[in-house]
Amino acid sequence: MNQILAVVVFVGAFWFIATERADKVKVVLVAAGLMTVLGLIPGEEVFYNAHVGIDWNVIFLLLGMMVIVGVIKQTGLFDFLAIWAAKRSRGSPFRLMVMLMIITAVASPLLDNVTIIMLVAPVTIVVCGRLGFAAQPFLIAEVLAANIGGAATLVGDPPNIIIGSRAGLTFNDFLLHMAPAVAVIFALFVLFTRWLFRAHLRHRSEHIETVAALQERRAITDPRLLTRALLVLAGVVVGFGLHSVLHVAPSIIALLGAGAMVLISRLDIGEILREVEWSTLVFFMGLFVMVAGLVHTGVIELLGDAAVAAFGDNPLFASAVLVFGSAVVAAFIDNIPYTTTMAPVVEGLVEQTPDHGQSRALWWAFAFGADFSGNGTAVAASANVVALDIARRAGHRITFWQFTRYGIVVTALSCVLAWAYVAVRYF
């Protein structure tokens, strides 16, 4: 009975989010409250359980990076980069889109896809405004690129951190096994965007002369603060890269960086906190509790046991199910809690596979499916939710289905290519 209630609450909430019949933050708060009131998850586990409930590492990572971005925004750096990008694109929307996607995809494996979206999305909105382009297609393309590029390394996408910890996989393991496929898939994705966003890539030249006359250096309003802020940001990036060596969680590194930014900026703390996407943080808290209801009532475990029983003795088929099944399921429940929940199931599959190479392949198949599922819907990954909230606050609203109709296509093609890679390389 509890399992049925949990599924009904979750599906009902997701229906309201997908159809946009109600504000998504209100929906997840009501659904999270129902999960607790109905006894589908003990109240104390919402806040203190390491495996289900609110993932505070994710919440504080986002909070820290939002503060960092809020301080950097005050220096005029985003306007500087926007003018620079507008000039280099020479008014070509496709050239601009490719530039922004490459920057995003190259930085995501090192900085993680959520952080890079926080940095690049404001630049995109400004540059599109300068050139008279609709910002929505460019933001969607960047998020898709970030979720693909982030799959390349251990720290590029939160599911990889979870998988690496569970499976004992290193940063170099991800580089050797994930990065080659990700590079090829991203290159094909860039070519595919010419067709995917073809309706929004018509060349317009009326704003080119205006932008060409602008001097990007004048956009920097506080050079001294910019220098200090970039040094702090560089330290945060190095910390992210070394977090497994330092044994310091990325969320702690982000909070330390945020604290340093507040100290060096001497800006009013209220002004900085106004830049924080509080609704995004609350949305994630509610979503984590919703998923916890599915975990605590055994819905996810039931699915996992059925998967083990169905294909536990066939590693090749198991790898296909892990890629495509993960892409479908995680697209609806956010890939971070999904990965946390399903990692023990995959571990069980790995233990049943005697061949070491094929058993490792199951982890890579799981990583591809979990990472690429992030493009499946507008709420499938942290980067998506953050980008949509930044767009909304800037007056460039992206609806659930506006994002999802592009994301589903990219997810499907990415997963087909990923599974072909896994099948050819390991089987």
Radius of gyration: 21 Å
Instruction: Provide mean pLDDT, rounded.
Output: 83
Assembly status? single chain
Give me the secondary-structure category: mainly alpha
Hey, roughly how much beta strand do the residues contain?
Answer: under 5%
What general form does the structure show? globular
In helices, the fraction of residues equals over 70%
| Low-pLDDT regions | none
- Termini separation comes to 42 Å
Largest sheet: none
What secondary-structure arrangement, pairings included, does this model have?
Elements lengths: L1 H18 L4 H14 L5 H6 L7 H18 L3 H13 L3 H19 L1 H19 L3 H15 L8 H10 L3 H7 L1 H18 L11 H5 L10 H19 L1 H4 L3 H16 L3 H5 L4 H19 L2 H13 L3 H19 L1 H17 L4 H17 L9 H12 L6 H27 L1
Description of the molecule:
77% of the residues lie in helices and 0% in strands. It has 427 residues and is an all-alpha fold. The longest helix is centred in the C-terminal third of the chain and has 27 residues, at 400-426. The radius of gyration is 21 Å and the shape is globular.
Structure keywords:
427 residues; mainly alpha; globular
Concise synopsis of the structure shown:
By secondary structure, the chain is mostly helical.
